[in-house]
Design a protein that fits this description.
Elements: E1 8-10, H1 18-25, E2 34-37, E3 42-45, E4 48-51, H2 59-66, E5 73-75, H3 82-86, E6 94-100, H4 103-114, E7 119-123, H5 130-134, H6 136-146
Parallel strand pairs: 1-2, 2-5, 6-7
Antiparallel strand pairs: 3-4, 5-6
Length: about 160
């Protein structure tokens, strides 16, 4: 129900639920709506976190493959630390990479992301590049865990 009539639907679910979630909202989503996937597949072992590439190549591609015809999917917000997002008193001061095969959908999500104070959205190209973007998330978590005093690291491209 929540997806019905929405302009943008953020698929804020674990990566293993992305396909089922898209399929469950497919009948409710307007053709003008945009689906946004922030999910990243990861596994953890004794050495830390590692990117887990799904068979489709990326979680964003999984969402795109499950989306109804004509409904664009955009990958965004993959590399944002939850702790940083939860602290509403601190400027984020980070970038988010935006991936899409639909230029209009990409521009809409870039504008949405940039409405968040301290968040800069950068065009990272088509969904074919999503695996590279998604793989940054476990790296950032590992860097934060390996360096005392470095909590919730993010990326800033200069």
């Amino acid at each position: 129900e929540a997806a019905g009539g929405a302009d943008v639907v953020v698929l804020a679910v674990p990566p293993y639920h992305v396909s089922d979630t898209v399929e469950s909202v497919a009948d409710e989503v307007d053709e003008e709506a945009i689906l946004v996937s922030p999910a990243t597949g990861m596994k953890r072992d004794e050495d830390g976190f590692h990117y887990h590439r799904p068979g489709a190549g990326s979680v964003t591609r999984v969402a795109a493959n499950a989306a109804p015809d004509g409904v664009p999917v955009v990958g965004c917000f993959h590399n944002l630390a939850a702790g940083r997002l939860a602290d509403l008193d601190t400027d984020l001061g980070v970038d988010t990479l935006v991936l899409a095969d639909d230029d209009d959908a990409r521009e809409t999500v870039i504008a949405l992301a940039e409405s968040v104070d301290g968040l800069r959205a950068l065009d990272a190209g088509p969904i074919a590049n999503a695996a590279e973007v998604e793989s940054l998330t476990p790296l950032l978590i590992n860097v934060g865990m390996s360096n005392e005093g470095l909590h919730d690291p993010g990326v800033r491209f200069d």
